[in-house]
Amino acid sequence: MEKTDDFRRTVLVTGGGSGIGRATARAFAREGARVVVTGRRPEPLHDTAGEPGIDVLVADLTGDGEPERVVRAVLERHGRLDVLVNNAGIVVREGLGTLTAAGLGNQFRTNLVAPALLTQAALPALEAAGGVVVNITTSVGRRAWPGNAAYAASKSALEVLTRSWAVELAPRGVRVVAVAPGAVETPIGEHSGMSPAELAAVRRWQLAHTPLGRIGDAEEVAWAVTRLCEPGAGFVTGVVLPVDGGAVIA
């Protein structure tokens, strides 16, 4: 049955300009949802919005008052918010011995503090809709990641929030889940400043530690996100679902 505007879900996807965010936004839009993608760079966001059903909202969620502004804008446009996908994340390539306060701060502000404050700002709307929060973490957070532990630590902390919020918000009718990608083809490596040779070395290591023996696609992660937001998943909360080709169990 075709969905009317009265029954179309509204979905907010952070970091929607590329990779998993873009694939997730487009997957929801193809299912008939009204999608808002947000991020810092307008051009990639508008590329994502080249498909029908996707709106653009440029924002830096680490800025003062930005989470509240983004939620207000979504509600002004669509009147409701059913799904929040906390996808935005950055990697700063610093290991122990080269750590800086700026690098640590940037990662934790983007990967942990911004999702927490955005979820808080969105909570009244999500409660009104009986909504879902999906946090995008990383399967690497369950293993050692020498030389890049701060990124994994920030995402692991987001998994703790996922479980805690699931219990805290269950009485309010809001489900909270997480999807933990493994080796997936996205531009996050290039965005972190990796050279082609460095990226190739990382890919070799990832392939060696992924039982299915290949790199995943962003669309495969988007599939997991959309399935966890279906009505049929209504009894699922607090789960962290790896989408990693078996890496966390190898």
TrEMBL record:
InterPro entries the record matches: KR_dom, NAD(P)-bd_dom_sf, SDR_fam
Span of domain Ketoreductase: 9-187
Transmembrane residue ranges: none
One Pfam family named in its UniProt record: adh_short_C2
Keywords, in A-Z order: Oxidoreductase
A molecular-function term among this protein's GO annotations: oxidoreductase activity
Gene3D superfamilies hit by this protein: NAD(P)-binding Rossmann-like Domain (3.40.50.720)
PANTHER family: EG:BACR7A4.14 PROTEIN-RELATED, ZGC:101858
Name of this protein: SDR family oxidoreductase
Lineage, broadest ranks: Bacteria, Bacillati, Actinomycetota, Actinomycetes, Kitasatosporales
